[in-house]
User: Fold this.
Amino acid sequence: MIPTLMQVRVKTSAGRRIGLWLPLFLLWVVVLLVSPLLLLALGFAALAGQPQPWPVLKAAWGVVNGLSGLDVDVKSEEADVLVRVW
Assistant:
């Protein structure tokens, strides 16, 4: 499943907290609008004798689908950062 939402939280050593919710589903709308141009460019690249782009696209799609459920929690003396992807 493709990720649709990302949460970023930062807590500084001074006690200040910043939280940000990013709706990734809006990004997917832009990707869908641009995808015909990308496919056209890939078709021209294939006609020009470039290596086959399909394995690269398949791997990129696998990475994007694997991001769902990702939790990154980084702690240091200056700040704590949490990134969650749903």
Remarks:
- The longest strand covers residues 5-12.
